[in-house]
Amino acid sequence: MTDERTRRGVLLAAGATAALAGCLGGGDDGEDTTADDGRDTDTGDGSSADWQSVTLMDATADEEFSIAETDQPVVLHTFATWCSTCRRQQGSLADAYDRNGDDVTFVDVTIDENDDPDDLRSHAEENGFGWRFAVAPAEMTRGLVDQFGQRVAVAPQSPVILACPDGSTTELDKGVSASEIESALDENCR
């Protein structure tokens, strides 16, 4: 019998490790939480927002980018192309994008290891989505799980996260509407 490790299994272990570390204490270990651009990436809960610095490839424009390099608020949605809950959430994202796309960067990152850039490009085109789509590298998914918990890596949970230009983040409730996204942007990032 071989010991096959799946991405999901690794993420579950990483989430359990992070939860245990939080229970056992930790706090400030002297780690520098300042990003290259001077932003403080310390989230205040013992984890850092390194996931914002991970380089992503926009499957729709074939361009590299990172959340940290974006000088606008970012609406980040983790999803999978097969997920019907995710598609419903993307409907709200589409409404918010139509009204705010010039002032806010919208990013959908798949956390499904079976989705590839071609799948994302097709998904965006078929649904008329005009924002960025990328495959979340493992280090980004681990960072998101460390900061927000395991549900961020479960597509049907379809979480939406706001990342403000100062590096601060806010997780929104499941099934958030376009107006709720806009209100959260106003309250947290603008």
Automatic annotation (TrEMBL):
Instruction: For the region Disordered, give the residue spans.
Output: 23-50
What the entry lists under PROSITE patterns is as follows:
PROKAR_LIPOPROTEIN, TAT, THIOREDOXIN_2
Going by the entry's taxonomy, the superkingdom of the source organism is recorded as Archaea
Q: Which InterPro entries match?
A: TAT_signal, Thioredoxin-like_sf, Thioredoxin_domain
- Pfam families associated with the record: Thioredoxin
- Domain Thioredoxin stretches: 24-190
Q: What is this protein called?
A: TlpA family protein disulfide reductase
